[in-house]
Amino acid sequence: MNPKSNSIPNTTFSDTDKALFKEQIQQGIPAILPQPKPFESNINHAPKRKEILSADEKKLALRNALRYFDPKDHAELLPEFRAELNNYGRIYMYRLRPDYQMRARPIDEYPGQCQQAKAIMLMIQNNLDYAVAQHPHELITYGGNGAVFQNWAQYLLTMQYLSQMTEDQTLTMYSGHPMGLFPSHKEAPRVVVTNGMVIPNYSQPDDLEKMNALGVSQYGQMTAGSYMYIGPQGIVHGTTITVLNGFRKIKKTPQGSLFVTSGLGGMSGAQPKAGNIAGCITICAEVNPKMTHIRQSQGWINEVIENLDQLVSRVTLAKANNEVVSLAYLGNVVDVWEKLDQENIHIDLGSDQTSLHNPWAGGYYPVGISFEEANTMMAQNPELFKQKVQESLRRHTDAINKHTAKGTYFFDYGNAFLLEASRAGAAIMAKNAVDFKYPSYVQDIMGPMCFDYGFGPFRWVCASGKPEDLQKTDTLACAVLEEMAKTAPTEIQQQMQDNITWIKGAQANQLVVGSQARILYADAQGRVKIAEAFNQAIAKGHIGPVILGRDHHDVSGTDSPYRETANIYDGSRYTADMAIQNVIGDSFRGATWVSIHNGGGVGWGEVINGGFGMVLDGSKEASKRLASMLFWDVNNGISRRSWARNEGAIFAIKRAMENEPLLKVTLPNSVADALLDF
C-alpha cells in the first residue's frame, strides 16, 4: 500500500459513502461481528512485545478484552484474542479495524450533536491516518509505543460516544478506554483524557509492559494519546530552531556544515526536513526500511544511502559544494559515527532522536544485528536484547566522544540518550560524576532561548480540511507577528524574526502530512492575538472552524527533568506541580479537551505532561475562552521558570504582569554568592 494513500485531503466521496461512514461511526461495536481481517504485512507494524504475563495474568487479559463484547461472541473471539496475545504480546482486536479510510475528514462529515465533539473525532482520525501514524494497525502514532487507544474496540466506542455527545456532557477517557459520558455543562471540557497515570511505585518500564498487556493502562506519549499529533511537522519548527541556534552557538553558518543524528519514525522524522530548512547537510540514520522509504516518499528526505563508503563520498561532495541536502542512511547510526571518525569527516552538530524512552521494545536497535533479527530477539530473548542495546550505547558514546574531542558540538535531543547511556555504563559522565558530559538541547538552546521567554509550539488545524483555509491562517498569523515585531523588546527580536521567517516559508516547505495543520512558535501574547484573528475570520465566514493545541514540548504543561525542564536548577526539576496545575487550569478556563499523561517524550516514569485542544467557532464565547486559557497555559510555565531564577523567565513574567493587572506572581530574590562561600 502506498503510505500516502490514507491521507488524501481533497478526495471526493459520494453522498452514499459519507452516509455509510456516519452510520458506521454511530454503531460503535457492531452487533454482528465483522469477519477476521488478514494481517497486512506491507503495513509498518509494531514489534512483538516481550512475554511478561503469567498464565493466570493471560487469562485476566482475555477477560479484560472480552468484556467489551456480548457473551454470545466470547467463544468465537477467545481463540483469536489468545493468538494475538501470544503472537504480538497485546490484544489489538484487529478484526474490528474499520473498513473506511482513516483520515482527518472535513468536520461536517462527522455525525453528531456537538461541533466540539466532531472536531475531536477529526483529530483522533488524523492521529491514525496511515501517513501520520507509525504503526496504524496497532493504534500507535509515534515513538514506538505512543498509542491513541489500546485496541480497536476502544476506538469504536469512543467515536460512538462522541457522535452522541451534547454540550452538557463530558467523555472520560482512562488510558484509551472510554469510561463513559457524564453530565457536565457547556463551559466544561468535552473530553478529559488520562494516560498511564499509575501509582508512583508502579511506574517502572516492566510495570507499563504488564499493565498494557493486561489492557488496563497505556503509554500515550503526549500528542498521540491526547489527539493532537500533526505528523512530523509538529517537531519540524522546533528542530529547525534548535539546529539554527546550535550553529549560532558554535558560531558557524549552516551552509556546508554537517548535522548527524538518527531516527526517522514518528517525530524524529522531522529532522532531515528541518536540516534542509536550516540550510545544512543532514545525515539521519534509520534501521527500519519501511519508515525510511515512507519519509522519502513524503519528501522529508532527499536521498537514501545504504553503503557507508557511498555515504562518505556523498557527504564529502556535499561539503565541497556547500550543498543543502538531507541523506538518510539505511542502517545503524553507530556505524555512521564510527565510519566518519575513521575517515576524519568533521561533524559540526551531533545528536540522536531514536526512541530511547523505550529502549527494550524497539525504540533503539543495537549495532551489528539486522532489523529483523533484533525484532525477534527483543521478543524471544529480552535479556540478551537489553545486553546488546547497552553494548551498542557504549560504542555509540565512545564514537561520539572521539568526534567531540575534534570539535563536534553534541547535545541530547530529549530522547533519554544521555540517561540510558549512563545506565549502560557508557563514558557519558562529567568529571564530577554527577552531571552528564553533554547538555540537553533544552539546557543549552531551547530553554534559555525560547521556553524561558514563553516561546513554544503553538499549533492549529483547519477543520474544514481545505488547503486554502490553511493558507489564510498562515497569512493571518504572519501579519500578527509582523505587527508585534515592530514594538517587541530587544530580548525577543530574534525569536520573533525566526518565527516570521518560518511562517512565510511554511507553504513552500510542504509541511502538511494528514490534516491541514500548522505549528508556529509563539509566546502567550502571540498565541492569543493569532487565535483571536482566526476567530474573527471564522465569524466573518472567511475560513471554517479551527482547532488549537500545542505540543507537550513547551513552556508549560510538562515536567521533564531531562528535557522540557532540564534548565531548572533550583532542585525542583523532579517535581510535577506545573503539569498538574496546567491541565486543571486549562480545564476551567475554556479548553475543549484536556489531557494529563505519565511518560510522554522521554519515557514512562520519567515525566508528567498536560495538554489541551480548543475549538474556535467564531463565537464571542470562543474569544473569551481563548484569551483566558492561552494566557494561563503559557504563563503558568513562565512563572515556574521565573521562580527557579531563570533570567529570561523573570523578564518575561514581569512583562506579562505589566500587560495584565490581574496577574500577580511571586518573584525570586537573588542571594549574593559571597554569602554562601563557606
From TrEMBL:
Residues 231-445 form the Urocanase Rossmann-like domain. It holds the Pfam family Urocanase. Binds 1 NAD(+) per subunit. The keyword Kinase does not apply. Its cofactor is NAD(+). The keyword Lyase applies. It comes from the Bacteria. Belongs to the urocanase family. Catalyzes the conversion of urocanate to 4-imidazolone-5-propionate. This is Urocanate hydratase. It comes from Flavobacterium crassostreae. The gene is hutU.
